[in-house]
Design a protein that fits this description.
Blueprint lengths: L12 E5 L7 E4 L9 E5 L3 H7 L7 H26 L8 H18 L3 H14 L10
Parallel strand pairs: 1-3
Antiparallel strand pairs: 2-3
Helix pairs in contact: 2-3
Length: 138
Amino acid sequence: MDEASAPPGSGFDVVWGELPEGQLHHLELDGEDRLTPRLTLNKGESKIAEVWNSIPNVGYRARIRDVLNSIVAIDVLVDLAVASDTINDAEDDEKAVEFKKAVMKTLTKNFRVPPELMSALDKAGESSGSFRAHSVVA
């Protein structure tokens, strides 16, 4: 039997905040506790906030909410992967390395990427620097 997993988003502080018009969310990774990123959802977009807060599991609002959640989840996972790729186990502090391991565990579990492949990519990136990201879109 698989161990019980935490619900999606439970590893984040998720808050409503003011963001520029048209921006759905912002992921902050450099807070005091790097292990708990902060995801800010735009409370200024009232129609989107209304859909995000909808409770029903069926119907139009539920489908739109699920699409919004998918869009945000993909952006967040990409940002987390890019950020963790810049962490060097030998040079960065313990919290950063723990953050990287948590991200790798999430990617391995959610995308069924074999742990051996993640480890091989990690080792290849450390030795050659070829897996370093060039930019992060938040």
